[in-house]
Amino acid sequence: MRLTDDERRMRDGEQGEAVAAAMDLLIRYGEVLGAERLVDTDNVCGANIFGPRQMQLCGHAGPDAVFSEFSLDSPEPVEIPPMRAQSYQLIGPMDTQHWQVQGLSQEAHDAIEESESYSARHGIHLMNTCTPYQVGNVPVKGEHCAWMESSAVVYVNSVLGARTNVEGRESAAAAMLTGKIPYWGYHLAENRFGSHLVEVAEPVRDSLDWGLLGYYVGEQVQEGVPVLDGIAEVPNLVKLKHFGAAAASSGGVEMYHIPGTTVEARSVEEAFGPRRPLQTLRYGERERRLTYEQLNSTAQDTDVDLVMIGCPHATLSQIRDVCRLVEGRKVHPDSALWVFTPRAIRQVAEQNGYARILRDAGALLMSDTCPAIGQFLPKGTRVIATDSAKQVHYLPAIMKVQGWFGSTEECVQSALTGRWQGELR
After folding, report:
1. Burial class of residue 352, CB neighbours in 10 A (0-12, 13-18, 19+)
2. Where is the Phosphomevalonate dehydratase large subunit-like domain (predicted)?
3. Does this model's pTM top 0.85?
């Protein structure tokens, strides 16, 4: 790998042991990937919030030791300096308001709070969300980033035209300390052209439809770059968020094109550039129904213990829509309704009265985490319902529950009645 003079100085320890360890990690990482050089980045999203388990594994040696071990892959603790790049914390393990609802101990709460404080002192912005583009981190077209979180990566690559691969905790932490990341994959213009053409023959209207389409496409193209042809209406942020998250869950999609909507494809021809489609797929009524049945294949019982909205984290408009469905009504005593959003959006929801409406209905507005990341559910939960194809893909496997997938309205109704009555319309 070719290094600049600045990069050699970092590698050789002129900026301290932590930066040297970070540069060593990036060089080894880049060489495995076949990268010929590094590229500058000033926009890094990672995950560096740790709890008592990590601290115990490090012998309670302090936060520098935990960061060294888990974020830098460094067997020896090094002193961690302030971050060089603009750095952001993604979704974490704890809701700072409702941590007791999660079932966390006081010890776990205190450890996570201290870890947050440590990150903040080192210049990591505590956004604590899987959708940082909703709350201020909106990279521009062509900007080189280093982001974790597959649903965020596919959004910024496709919708905004920024450039990032799906990074891991270690490579993201190393990028925070150095402002560098290997120049490969979706950082290169030639890798951003389409690979598969998807002819969309079925109307795609609401978030349920976009989740179904995304799940089908991801399963078919895996790590390819799908180009969607036949989309009649311009999708909004929520629909694109659901599509990308689903495609990144069933497959490994990190980028897609919707000609006339996403920024790097004014036409199908521009989306493919010099390439020809490897395959042409058709998404019609049959594919839609089979995908719906697949997403609901883990569920049999119709008594719903938990309804989860906000994967990826809910927008203010999604929270408003849930409020309109529950206002003046009550969540069934044998069920629960949890809505997850970024902390900054929860504050606006409080100001708008949305959080109060949810509380009055017996629901909770939560932030900073989600049941899959924090691995928590109400005690005794056997059946969940969600409007997220991503969440119904992961949560049954992670938490050993049954999962129903449907529209937001169907999910909220199941929380109010305690029973699932959704169907594909």
Report:
1. middle
2. 1-413
3. yes
> For 383, phi and psi rounded to 5 degrees?
-135, 130
Q: Are strands 180-182 and 38-40 parallel, antiparallel or unpaired?
A: antiparallel
Q: Where are the domains of the chain?
A: 5-189, 193-294, 296-417
Q: Which residue has the tokens 């109060």?
A: 356
User: pLDDT per residue over 7-45, tens digit each?
Assistant: 999 999 999 999 999 999 999 999 999 999 999 999 999
Judge if 5-189 and 296-417 fold alike in CATH terms. Answer: yes
Burial 48-58 (b: 16+ CB within 10 A, else e): bbbbbebbeeb
Q: Contact at 8 Å (CB) between 259 and 267?
A: yes
Residue type, 161: G
Q: Which fold has domain 5-189?
A: Aconitase; domain 3 (3.30.499)
The fold adopted by the segment(s) 296-417 is Aconitase; domain 3 (3.30.499)
Backbone dihedral angles phi then psi of residue 258, each to the nearest 5 degrees: -120, 100
384 alpha-carbon distance from chain centroid? 20
201 token code pair? 């023959």
Name 323's Cβ contacts closer than 8 Å, sequence gap at least 6. Answer: 354, 357, 358
Q: How far does CA 370 lie from the centroid of its chain? A: 11
